[in-house]
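User: Run a structure prediction on this.
Assistant: Running it now.
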Amino acid sequence: MFDSEVQRILDFVARGIGVRVVGAPGSGKTSVVRSVMSNLEKTGVAVHFITGLRTHRILPFAAIKGLGLDLRPGRSGVFDIADVLTSQLATNGKHLLVVDDLHLVDSESLAVLEAVRRRSTCPMVATAPETWAFSKGQLAILNNGREAHLQLDPLHYEQVHMLIAQVLGAPADADTTARILTKSAGNPRLIVRIAETASLSNLLVMKDKQWGMTTNTLWNEHLRGTLESLLAELSADEFTALHTMAILGTARVDVLQKVIEPDALEGLERRGFLSVMDDHHNGSIAAISPPVIADYFRGNKNLRDRKLLRRKIAGVLEAAPRAEQENQTTADCLVRVLATLRLEKGDGDAVTARHFHDHSSDRERIRFERWEANKSAANAAALLRIYWGAPVDVQRAARVCSETTTSEADPKDVLFVTITRAMLAVHTGQGPGAAVDILQKFADDNPDHAAEAAHAITFLSASHGRVPVDTPTSVLESKPSGMGSLVHGLLELYRFRPAAAYDAVDGQNDDDTFSHLRPFIRGFALFAAGRTEESLVFALDWRAEARKNLDQFGVVTSSYVAAHGLLYRGHFEEAEYLMSSVFAMGRPGFVVDALYDAMLRLAGLRHATTATPPALSIAAQARTEVPDVGPLPGIGKGAYELIAHDSAQPSTFDRKAAKLVRRQLKSGYVLEAMMTALLCTCLNPGRPVLDLLQKILRDSGVTVHDQLIGIATAVVEGDHQLLGLLLKHYEPDIDTYQVGMLLRGALKRHVIEGDTAAADAMAQASSMFAVRFPSANEQLSFNSFRTTPLTEREIEVAVLAGHRTNVEIAEHLGISARTVENHISNALRKTGATSRNGLFMLVGNSLPPRGAGIS
């Protein structure tokens, strides 16, 4: 789980730089340093390991004596011990000091370490809590010499998916993964313990080779010891404060301040047990983090029955003033929205997901009780609207659709219930035909609303089958702000006519039956038209507003638009976090669940193109019983499966890709066909797909990709002179990142095909372009053509071969220069690369990007 963090530490230590590893309790600090130690010991480095223990921090010299130093009788003072340890560090060979849990090391051992650090240049790796207020003695040890700082952040959805599979031997389904992430707040230790104890308690069972939940809870008595250990450092006031918050649930900060002492709240926030966020309706709100702590208090009978505490809370809640609602929206530049997204990333997404769950659950319960009391169409529409975005109770939704009274009801409410019933038919596997029959019957029974029903039929038919060549007359004749304009805009988006799609939904209409369809079309039309930055700003601002409103429908739809923009620009880390925050909420309602599956495939796409893809891809959680083609990119599974599955030769890939694009075009999903053709051309440029891409762009009148198409044509035709001129005069545009992909993809294709001259020319062109337009983002590259894959060590050496000598690589990896030479020779033979630089270009993206701040 921590390969990239371990590699960063190894890089720093190799350069004589110490590292401070910080994170929350259970974040994996000890696992990281033990992996570092194991790696270094294999290369002959002498590791001197010191660990702090909670029970030993008042015992003099307890930590330093754990080294087993050979001390002379009567010579056990600070400087005596420091002399012995310093002499050990001065012996031949490389040495490393490791101090695990520095905050628990006794004062006398700290004094020894300070003396040693002053006398020796040996680097030190130390771990400590991220929020710890270090003493002067601890800082004297840390701030001695050069030091890098490595923060272990909470795990995100994909990492949780992989960790659960490692622990339980098989992956969990999407809802289970999301629930474990939410309950653990991404804490690795809690993820492992929740998964293990839930399986022991039969709360998780194997279904179709995936673990799934048998109940609505994962709390079990086997978790008690883990939580007691996590809370062991709390004061009595802080412990009571957590109990109070468990009773309150997610609450406004001003309410908490009335029942909890400010010092206790501040202490909990400093320790990471309190998460504060902004809420659109209630101002600042706070919740326990990780949320499983609340389950501990609610599930423990001895802690549950505190009547005086409950009465105190009830009295305060009765007097609590209501907060005024705020409704502010902003539109700023791309730098601002990306900075906001990165800031949000550091907070984790589990608490936010829990807040969404609580809010949706409360609304669903209240509205269902209201409907049971009065089964009117208005009450039914209010309840069913929740299921369009939030997780759906299929049985309850079906009951509402069938038992609702429609007599004397507002036709708009009846129409909404009918549309929901039709979509529910598709969701439950009855197929688009059954949905159309439901809507057609409504149109026959309600002639005054036949036009709206026809629009809904057009929407469902086009989204689940084939886009009509021309927009139906009934749609075109509708009012510009009505449902017809939305359906017309969506059809134009499917057909890859972004300008027409944008114009169709221009303006505002709060009465849209299809909630959020108008901004969705607008945002994706901007992206399809090549206005990527505008699309990103629009989508990320929309997403921020939806998060404040606790609107899961809006979060999913806006995140889908933003994810495409982020991926297109190469912002993989931001895109993966954004999608992870959606996955953490669990599978959404039946209207946007297709977008959820699409994002699962998008999240797995990056790994599908690497030389060493993970054994368990997050894309496996997407539903497989869907067609190969879909109305929007990622909804059909064909593009992902094409790239994820190995092809023996580039020509085979060309044939399969061209066939898929033609199928997409035949269904009328031109936008999906364009995106598929563009991606395949950049990953593995070939004539069949490029010809299709050129025709699509020409027919759609989209010219923003002209520079890319010109370069791709020169690459495919092997006109290196023209290619050089085009690259020399290239002006940065929306496709700058894609041009880099294209050049690298062409290089790899030539290597596989054995065209040495073309490969060398393309390597030179790719290198020159990279120098002129350096990218801070990882370059996506296609590595599926591999019949003799490199070993892990060969890949590691190849990654370094582009910018280091054999001697430097040997020193960095702790092996001999001769061994490095052998690895490079084997890698050149296996890949067919003709130079060290070509080898580096082939596998340069195989390992995660490295980097950390140095203080």
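The mean pLDDT is 83.
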